[in-house]
Specification:
TIM Barrel, 2 domains, 3-stranded antiparallel β-sheet, 15 helices, globular
Length: about 375
């Protein structure tokens, strides 16, 4: 259940109660695709990094170790030792990212596994069964993530099909939750808005799927080729049509600047691989901008990675040491940067919530919007 606590313009401060705990919103979900954050970070680490929600991927866990295996081991929370809420992606993004390996039809999508090439079929029912076996807190509806730019007619037809798939998802998940032995009988379902960059299709699709009165709604298919300005334009068109009493999730976004802009436009929930992916290449997000620890200027720099941060990395290690580890290709260098970036993102959302609580979000936005996007 979502509770709206207060607003500042379009920005929202809320709480989302789930069977696995209450999420303070706006919030960032940390991406543990196969049950772990890339960069040797476990669920036990996430506890000290201010993480509230872990995100795992249906498609990848279906392939390895297998969703039936996870169910036998007690579900995704017990399997990973994460005690908080877990959201599972539906596998729909792989319809987009594995475009050369898939075939879409009304029943669902046939994939070629990126691991061994074997053929896999996934439709709404299959996606719900896999996510039911995983026992996540929130299951995402199966959809097609449309590339940008996309043809108008194809986009319209695809969104109509995604809406039909959503009805099938709800019917199947409702049935699965009633079955004896369900890992999480209180599993929630979020629907996904699509429509490329066509605001009329986006708005029509949102109006259609909100009729199902789901537990939450997401905006999908952004940050996949369009400009930031186009993304913000779509968000501005869609959020007024999203139920005010349900969480609003912007999928796969993004940079600290993207998050600030989206919160300002009424979004509650975010996820992105950027904190861990960039960290593994030595790029650290700081309160002064983005720092590339691979640069030679850090060879003798004994300062913390970010002097305004109290994460485990910044409390204990210098820029020079991290620079050395990265240059030496030591895994610890990547791990420390990932720890820092995850902590930074979760702290950013924590500070946004505090600014909303204290009625100073506009000043927080103005202070940080130009700084967080710059490269040091």
């Amino acid at each position: 259940m979502y509770r709206l606590l207060k607003t500042s313009g379009q920005a929202r401060r809320g709480e989302f109660q789930t069977v696995h705990g209450t999420v303070q919103m706006p919030a960032f979900m940390n991406v543990a695709t196969a049950g772990a954050i890339k960069g040797a970070v476990s669920a036990l680490d996430l506890k000290q990094l201010k993480c509230q929600v872990q995100l795992c991927n249906t498609y990848h866990l279906h392939l390895r170790p297998g969703d039936e295996t996870v169910k036998k081991l007690g579900g995704i929370c017990r399997f990973t030792r994460w005690e908080g809420p877990v959201l599972t992606d539906s596998g729909g993004f792989q319809v987009f990212s594995l475009a050369k390996l898939r075939n879409i039809r009304e029943e669902g999508v046939t994939f070629a596994s990126h691991i061994d090439g074997r053929r896999i079929f996934m439709g709404p029912e299959e996606s719900m069964r896999i996510q039911s076996n995983l026992g996540s807190t929130i299951a995402m509806a199966f959809d097609e993530c449309i590339e940008n730019p996309a043809e108008y007619a194809y986009t319209r037809n695809s969104c109509d099909r995604t809406a039909r798939w959503l009805y099938r998802c709800k019917t199947e998940l409702d049935k699965l939750k009633r079955q004896e032995g369900a890992v999480n009988p209180q599993q929630m379902l979020f629907g996904i808005n699509q429509g490329s960059t066509y605001t009329d299709i986006r708005v029509d699709h949102m109006k259609k799927i909100r009729e199902l009165n789901l537990d939450g709604y997401a905006i999908g298919g952004l940050a996949v080729g369009e400009s930031a300005e186009e993304m913000y334009r779509v968000i501005e068109a869609v959020t007024p049509e999203m139920p005010a009493d349900k969480p609003r999730y912007l999928m796969g976004v993004g940079t600290p600047v993207n998050i600030l802009e989206a919160v300002r436009r009424g979004v509650d929930l975010f996820d992105c691989v950027m904190p861990s992916r960039n960290a593994r290449h030595g790029h650290a997000f700081t309160w002064e901008g983005c720092r590339n620890l691979m640069n030679a200027k850090y060879e003798l720099d004994d300062a913390p990675l970010d002097e305004n941060c109290d994460c485990p990395c910044c409390r204990n290690f210098s820029r020079a040491y991290i620079h050395h580890l990265l240059k030496s290709k030591e895994m610890l260098g990547m791990r420390l940067c990932v720890l820092h970036n995850i902590y930074f993102y979760n702290t950013l959302l924590e500070k946004i919530r505090l600014a909303l609580d204290e009625d100073c979000f506009d000043s927080f936005y103005r202070k940080n919007i130009s700084v967080l996007g710059q490269r040091i």
